[in-house]
Design brief:
This protein is an all-alpha fold. It has one domain. 75% of the residues lie in helices and 0% in strands. It contains three helices and no strands. α1 runs antiparallel to α2. The longest helix is centred in the middle third of the chain and has 30 residues. It is rod-shaped, with a radius of gyration of 17 Å. The relative contact order is 0.12. Pfam families: HSL_N.
Length: 73
């Protein structure tokens, strides 16, 4: 959760900063940071879901070898 809270705060701050510039580049950066904020907001529940399930795909209890674990980390 702290990672996504930081992502949301930083994306919001950057979007606001670039929106105030009044330039085309600034508007494009602002839109990119707004999109990043939205992607993070939508991605967090999916990653929480994977975190609850990835242990099922380990090779065995002592060998955490699967791509889901790597994706979440």
């Amino acid at each position: 959760r702290p990672l996504f809270q930081s992502l949301q705060a930083l994306a919001e701050d950057n979007a606001s900063f670039f929106q105030r510039s009044g330039t085309e580049s600034g508007r494009r950066f602002a839109a990119a940071f707004a999109a990043l904020r939205e992607h993070g907001r939508r991605l967090e529940p999916a990653l929480r879901h994977f975190a609850r399930l990835y242990h099922r795909f380990d090779l065995d209890e002592a060998t955490p070898g699967n791509g889901y674990r790597s994706l979440v980390q």
